[in-house]
Give the backbone structure.
Amino acid sequence: MEQTLFYTMATVTVIGTIFAISEKHPVHAIVYLVTSFFALAVVFYLLAAPLIAMFEVIIYAGAVMVLFMFVIMMLDQGRPEDARRPPLVHCLPALVLAGVILVSLVLLISSRTTAIPIVAVAPHIVGVREFAITLFSKYGVAIEIISMQLLFAVVGVLYLGRRRKQ
Amino acid sequence: MIVPLAHLLIFASILFVLGLICVLIWRSNVIMMLVGIEIMLNAAMLVFVAGANHWGMADGQVFALMIMAMTSAEVSLALAMVVYLHRGKKTVNVDAFRELRDQ
Amino acid sequence: MTLADISIALPLLILASGALLTLLGGALTHNGAVGTLIAVTTAIAAGLWSLQTQAVLIAPTLGLSAGGLTRLFTAFFAFMSAAVLVLSSRYNAYRDIRGEEYPATILFTTFGMVALAAATNLMIIFLGLEVMTFGFYILVAMDREQGVSSEAGLKYLLLGAVSAAFLAFGIALLYCVAGTLAISAVMQQTLAFGPPNPVAVAGWACVLVGIAFKLSLVPAHLWTPDVYDAAPAPVVAFLSGASKGAAVLLLLLLLPQAGDLAILRVPLFALALLSMLLGNLAALRQSRVRRMLAYSSIAQMGYVALALLSHRGDGFQAAAFYAIAYGIMSLAAFGAIGVLEGNGCGPNLDDYRGRGYSHPLAAGVLAVALFALAGIPPTIGFTGKFLIFAAALRAGEITLAIIGILTAAVSVYYYLRVVTALYLQRSENAERERISVFEIAVLGHSIALILLLGLFPSQLLGFLRMQLP
Amino acid sequence: MKKALELIVLLPFLGAIVNILLGRILPRRAVAITACSVIWGSFFAALFAASTYSGPAVVEIGTWLSTFDLRAPITFYLDPLSLSLCLMITFVCGLIHLYSIGYMGDDPGHVRYFALLNLFVGAMLLLVLAENLPLLYLGWEGVGFCSYALIGFWYKEAKNATAGRKAFIVTRIGDIGLGIAIVWMFKVFDTLSITEANQMGHLVSMEVITALGLLLLLGAMGKSAQAPLMVWLPDAMAGPTPVSAQIHAATMVTAGVYLLMRMFPLIGVSTVVVAAIAVTGAFTAFYGATCALAERDLKRILAFSTISQIGFMMLAVGCGAITAATFHLIVHAFFKALLFLGAGCIITAMQHEQDIFRMGGLRRTLPGVFWPFLAGALCLAGVPPTGGFFSKDSILTMVWVKGGMFYGALYGVAMITVFLTAIYTFRMMFLVFGDRLTVTPPTHGPHTPVKRLPRIMEIILIPLALLGLVGGIFNLPAYLGSGLLQSFLAPLNVDGGHLSQATELALQGAASVVALSGIGVAWLCFGRQGREVRITRAEQPASGVTAFLQAGWYVDTLYQFLFIRLYKWLSAILWERMDEGVIDDSLDRMAVGLGRTGQLLGRWGGGRISAYMLSLAGGATLTIVWFAWVVL
Amino acid sequence: MTTLPVLSVLIVLPLLGAICLIPLKDREKLAKWVALGWTIIELLIACWTWSVSGASPPSGAPPGFFLFEDFAWIDSLGIRFTLGMDGISLLMVLMTVLLTLVCILVSWRTIHERTTLHFIMLLLLESTILGVFLSLDLFLFYLFWEMMLIPMFFLIGIWGHGRNIYSAIKFFVFTLSGSLLMLLAIIGIYLIHGSQSGIYTFNLTALIDTRLDPTVGIWLYAAFLLSFAIKFPLVPFHTWLPDAHTDAPTSGSIDLAGLLLKTGAYGLIRFGYPLFPEAARTLTPLLVTMAVAGILYASWIAFAQKDMKRLVAYSSVGHMGFVALGIAAWTPLALSGSIVLMVAHGITTSALFALVGMLASRAKTMEISAYGGLWCKVPVLSCFFMLFAMASAGLPGLNNFVGEFLILTGAYKVQQTATLVAFLGLILALVYTVRLVQELLFQEERQPLPMGDATSQEVVILTILALGVIIIGLHPGPLLDMLALPVHILTGGAP
């Protein structure tokens, strides 16, 4: 059951992403992407990370994508008549490079010599409590750092967004 | 573990590469490039979560959270810059910005 | 949180609170000088603290370390940022970059570097690196009067984000293999002796791509000239000196813990080779001084890669030494360029004509820095190159050493072009040099360091030898 | 003895130094007096040395080059040969110095002149007295330099300067031979001492000795203007006439002969060398005589005759007849100096006209010159019983004594040369002194030999004439008593066998007949009637044999084409094509190429973010693929 | 007295002098006198070292060295501040201080702008060159070896004329390319020695004992040789020299010809051969070929030159070919000859450059064809010119001859053919010399040039050099004695 759900969701994610990147219209692309992220959130959930799944939905599919949408609208990129796909010349090298990378990665990952040890203990669900303990004790500094970064994102954006002096 | 780790990793790799493709082909639209970067980072998050699940540790999930926070900061800055640049050139085509180059 | 924890984390705390204070002070007084003053004080305080603090290896609970390398580089970053702040004050006034955001962001960037330096696990490393880069995204684009500077910012940001994605993906793969983020464990398990683990190898490939971008190694170097060209000169000094140093430090934190580095040899080899060749060749006919120095920086990082590659011959020490050396040299070079530009000097080589006589101090510093970059004794650049090539030969990297030294010979040409313009060519401009006491102090210190560490590197070397056996 | 030797050499140098340093502030007369007095001082020192001479002596004066196994101190070797040459040199040079006072009467460069002249004498004496080869070489090059500077003394005319240059370079070619011989000798003998080397000949193979001998011969060829390096001497006449007399007739040009005589104990054992010397000498003697036959320039005639006479000396050396060679060398110095000084008088009197076809009747106008000149001519032509006759005859005799096909042929050549010598000598005599001045040169306008000569110039001719005429007493043939020089030089001689008095007399008779018949021929051609015809004919450009001879067998032209042009051409080619063109340009091109490559590499991407991305992704691809390749 | 580190003082003093001059930027007159005083002090110290050259060697000194100083420096890398003086260095040091004095005097009136800077550069150059001649530590040697390029670069570039920038850069890049490879070789031998003995050191005496694999030895030596050959310069690495000389100011030319070129030869003698005896022997044919080619080729080309300085520059290449030949022969005689010729050439060529500079400063041209008939216009200068030209052509009794003769004598024993060919070079040398003399001094004046005869200052300069020419030519004994011991030791004799 879970496996089936997982594979389904994985397929949805991949297809959604493919649609997103091949869609000529940015607004549609964002919508496909939101779909894909929802599916990904399900995968996270299946991987015993409910918190991350929540954040994925709230932050990514919610805030970030809305931000994108907002900017698209603001820059007036949402008009369907302007939208066109990138020409094949642009795609070809990208596809070749990406294809090669993918093949190599897949070969490496699926190699029989892959020696990621199978954990002996029974599948262990990481609970919110454990997550929180790890987050705030072990990686307390990381919180500090990331908070600084968010602060300075604000600073930077404000600085850039400030009207130029005449 | 519901599925083998390798499957998860391959899934993530596909996502990552799709993101890369998006970055590479959408030179005509910087917003789509940013979207591609988001996809790549999501792939990374997926790997972290898979690893956390595999090892039964929370570290990976924490890392995923950090990535999420970091990307949102980056995206906001990037979008601000796009808006700022768009004011000057009225375009989102990245290749239009090539005043800096070797003569 | 014990006292030891606080003692170790204090530089971070100082910098963070300093950044906030700067913002606050600027907002309250509407005077940029206050911000700068606070920022400089903070930076110096952080640097001093880290110099005097005890050598405690790992903080009990925070997961930060205070080993020798950490303290050395923390001080390096902190003093560097103080110097950059000092240099910026007049330059920014000239370029009309106002506000407390600038000093605060410098501190924030330094904060990232210091975090990276103190890291004991990959997460802090990653975050520190990203914070640093994030700070630079802002700094590079700060000069809003120049349209191109935001273009540079965009280029840096897009490439930086992609490389960050690579880095994250790579670290994730490593995590999958090792099951932990602690550096030593990850390094031991992913680069163990015996047949390599394919997933780990894939992870390392991605990590290398990310780091190549930070070090601006070919083929991930293309942003460098553009950013160097457009960013404010002190920012370039900081970017070139400190951020490269941080990237090198990252590798120095990781690689010595590894079991077997053999698998990384060929990629590093290629990166070093291409960077040395391309950097030095592309700089030859540059007409813009900053772009020339950008290519030079690419080449210099090629030498660092060569040093890292030669880890079996004390290459890590050489790399660490050279990272610091390069930091000081670029501080001097771009500091001097900043002063010259503040005096109305244009970006082209031709604009530098005769500045050696009309602006003797700044031009003198620039000339010494260039000779140092070219590796002419008795400068730190020479000693650094000497160490690198000694390491390369000791490790048996003879081919690369020979190519490196030949490209170094070629590189002399373009450094000399600038010196030529400064001293050998004439121009009619007879304006007086405007340079503040603080700038003189900073540039003077950097020159003194270039010469003194070049002639008497014993102490630094001995220290590095202890840290990186 | 040591003091005397030191004085002999040092005095001239002293004079030179004084004149160089102080010449500009000293009065004119003082310069001349200094110059002359040091030479005469040197002569008296030589006389003193001769009077106390008791046997060969090696005297070390000071150190010079000395390191490791190489020893070349300043050491003099006084033996009969060097002593007699010293006497001759100081005496003749002393006279010439005196003569110069008159000759250089009002020339502005007199300080330079006398300084160089003194320097020359010093160097020449050093050459003669040197006990080791480097020291000899020092003198050797020293005289070469002085010759160079003095030939080009009137440097403002390019021709003179060029002549000096030519002399210097051509002799330097010969010097190389000497130089190589020196280092080679040092290699095989481990010594540079002449006396020691002369005794070590048996230690090495004959091939080496032959090679050494030929190298020395090359040196001698250059210095003594022997074929094929004789081309410089006629041109050297561009210098002041006393210089020609001193350097290019009496002393320096005989240095080559002296060198061969000096080294004869070593090289004389090689038949090849000896034969080569003899052939060189005979051929050069013949060559010089033929050229002199057609030459019109008074000084050049004398120059060719010098070449020819030195050829005789070489021939003598080639026969092992050291005494004969020395004898002729000394006597030749007297009469040739005489002839040159006389020519100097004539030329001065004729206001620098040197073409003998434009002279005539000087017998009456310049009697004080004519008679000594006649004496000199008789000596040169070998008319008995002048000194010239005896010295030349002793050479001919020695050639005869050697016998055999080879030397027989050489004897024949020598006899022909004697004949030719008589002809050209008296051709010159008749044209210069005979009859009266007939032709008024169209270019020079009418000129009459009115210029009064300084008395001293004519006076100097007399002692030289006397010495030339009676020079024979130095070495009378056996039938007239003992040969002074013969016994004096005995230790040096390689005994060439004995000759009955009858044969000797017969040979002398033959020689004198040949010489006299030569004079006769000259009389027929250039005497009273012939003179007019010849002079008229000389107005036309020369043709045929005359032209050939006048051009010195076209040797100069040949060298011009073969060496000089080629050298200059190649020099320019090497510089422009090779040095600038290939070596330097290839580096420049490489530099430019590197720069261009760099430019291309820098333009990679052209500022487009997409290209930057592709580059980054490409790098990533390569890395990952490479890792996959390695691991799988 | 022995406690004072004289050699370090010798090196540091000019450096201090240069620093002292910096504040005198606008007081050029004073700066000149200070620089002069400083060089004279330097000269006196050098003479003092000469006076102790017979003294017994201090403890720890390698055989043959009578002054030796050794201080700790970068211990972790085995680098020490080791200086030593033997006869060869002494000679070179004397020449250096003398020629620097000459340079200062030559520049006295001819440098009109940035005078103080000029003197600073001269002092810096003196210091670094002295360092090269005194170092016994390879690292230290290399340090000075490269440092000396900087002042030279500025001398050519700032006060030069014509294509001075091109020439300065060419000079720098050329010489640096060679020396960088040498740096690799230095590190190489350091590592090999370290791995063999366990002691990592750059000390020359220690490194001499390194056992080298033949192939490795050859490669290392080749790198050294390349570096020295460029400095020498040997054909075909010589093309920087004519340009550099032609465009340099007089003092630059003097320093370049008199001192910089000598460092190449000195390096080969002091480091090249002793460190790699076997490789040097193997590569001797190469060195000999380059030497002989240099002698012939450069002398030949010199003939075609139209520019006086360029002609003298090419003649330098030819003379240095002789030096190289002597070194290649590596017999006591030839080696002493080479060293003597280094000194002799230093004096002669410097004098010629000084003279050419004096002429050019009057006539404002370097073209040979502009001159002519100088003898009657400037007799004193001409007289000196003749003297130095003849010395350069190897006239016996003058200094060059001593060197050339010893070289040829010594080399003939081991390199017969090459020596024979080298003899031809003597002819070629004479050919271009007399051409120069004739076109300058003799013949009619070709262009009316404003000319005054030598000033008293010029006479002083030229007299100093002329005395050198004549004294060495006639009485080389002291000089040869000075060299005897070190040369003996270098060529394998027991100390």
Remarks:
- The mean pLDDT of chain C is 91.
- The CA atoms of residues 44 and 79 of chain C lie 6 Å apart.
- Chain C touches chain A through 41 residues (CB under 8 Å).
- The two ends of chain C are 31 Å apart (CA to CA).
